[in-house]
Amino acid sequence: MPAMSVLRSERERCSPLSARPVIWWGAGGWMMVVWLIAVSMVAACSPPDTPLQSRGAESDVLVFTGARLILGDGAVIENGAFVIEDDIIFDVGQIGQVEVPKAATVIDLTGRTVMPALVNTHAHLGWEGYTSWGAENFTRENLIDHLDRHAYYGVGTIISTGSDIEEISLQVRREQRVGEVGGARYLVSPGIGTPGGGPNPRFTDDDGWWGLHHVTSPAEAREIVRSEAAKGIRIIKIWVDARDQRRGAQVKLRPEIYAAVLDEAQVRDVTVIAHATTLEDHKRLLRAGNRRFIHMPYDRAVDEEYLALVRERNAYIVPTLGMITKREPYYVPAFEDPFFQEQVSSEVISMLSEAYEGARPAAPSERSPPAVERSRMLASNFEALKDHIILGTDAGAVGDFFGYADHVELGLFVRMGMTPAEAIVAATRRSAEAFGLMDVGSLEPGYSADFVILDANPLEDITNTRQIYEVFVRGERIDRGALRDRWTR
User: DSSP 3-state assignment of 322?
Assistant: First the structure.
């Protein structure tokens, strides 16, 4: 059927000759699905001013029209339209170029912006309890809550790296795949590291710590990769840093061990991401074949040798700026931000406020010369690497909060030198491509219907990603109001 009812003048769009179900919102938040056969012009043409209601049984096909579409690869369609059927994007284009199925439900988004749901490639789910932190929080229920929190903020995919209790995480992953669990799409990434090393002591000092496979030889490393691949794991993290001084390890993962991990992973179709923070470790890993990094070099300025390796390998780097900018004068603690406050209880806000007393960053005039120079160096490194940057927050490990931290990170991307358009590409299409996720991160036919509807244009101001009107993940509307009620009571 031609898209004549989508490409039409204002007068034609309101004509009683139209015969297609349209969602109509009332001022009280109720919804009516009507066939436009003898409906008034006012009812037919009024854009929605309250959130979408659940679509019910009227149609399995939805057509969204009139919005600005940010596709994820840098392209933008003004006055666009896209079709979703069940959980898949069926067609995308300008109004008039998209064929509208006969029985589709049409939703007018005139004046709004649609972008792909975010793809977060680095967080630590399960440990955060919002009023406590630790392994005792790692339950099925809390893990699902963290998936919901990401979805609430427009994150469609989350990779949890190196700290998830496998028995629980693999169960939740299975349940999500068969539709029993919702929220952001959950990808599990177990860790490999030196005995006693790996993550920081906050994790390893916990009596219930689990998440790291300790290896002492290339043979052990290969066996772990084979075992994890047999469980359906497709992403593995390697901890290279020697960070756990409390346990006395202080030994980095040896190059011959991570070379074995990278080699076996390639055979098993497993993607590897390396936790490394020094320039020399980055160079060694790149030469060994690693292409994905958690953290950019923090110890010194990047050089041309390193940048040439990054370009040659087409490397992807998660800078986790939110983690390293907490001492910057522009840092805003979460508990002071209304965007964070809207989804937590007053108890959480009070607890965070009390913990923050006396820890505010120094004023610009009070900062030491080394601190100022380090900030300049990090900003310079980010600028040099910006075409290889992807989204990751480290949320759940260092006091950042699920979903909310993603928007903080986007703001930091722009502060450090990206345009809003570049930041969105880094947080959607490029993040997905880094891990071979070819069905998320874009508004494109054949991709999962994971998208965010915004009330303002983030290309003009990146903070407009916070102006969330609705979120869809796997074609299902996230009931953000119900989640808020649950979290704030």
Answer: helix
The residue assigned the tokens 């049984």 is: 57
Structure-token match 């690869």, residue found? 73
CATH for the 10-116+477-488 domain, from 3.40.50, 1.20.140, 2.60.120, 2.30.40:
2.30.40
Each residue's pLDDT expressed in tens, for the chain with a length of 489 residues? 333 233 222 323 333 223 344 443 333 333 333 333 233 333 333 334 445 544 444 568 999 999 999 999 999 999 999 999 989 999 999 999 999 998 899 999 999 999 999 999 999 999 999 999 999 999 999 999 999 999 999 999 999 999 999 999 999 999 999 999 999 999 999 999 887 677 777 887 788 877 689 899 999 999 999 999 999 999 999 999 876 655 555 678 999 999 999 999 999 999 999 999 999 999 999 999 999 999 999 999 999 999 999 999 999 999 999 988 888 888 889 999 999 999 999 999 999 998 887 677 777 778 888 889 999 999 999 999 999 999 999 999 877 899 999 999 999 999 999 999 999 999 999 999 999 999 999 999 999 999 999 999 999 999 999 999 999 999 999 999 999 999 998
Closest Cα to residue 438, out of 428, 450, 447?
447
Which CATH homologous superfamily contains domain 118-440?
A: Metal-dependent hydrolases (3.20.20.140)
Residue 477 burial (CB < 10 Å; 0-12/13-18/19+)? middle
pTM for the structure as a whole = 0.88
What is the C-alpha separation between 398 and 334, in angstroms, rounded?
Answer: 13
Within the chain, all domains assigned CATH 2.30.40 are found at: 10-116+477-488
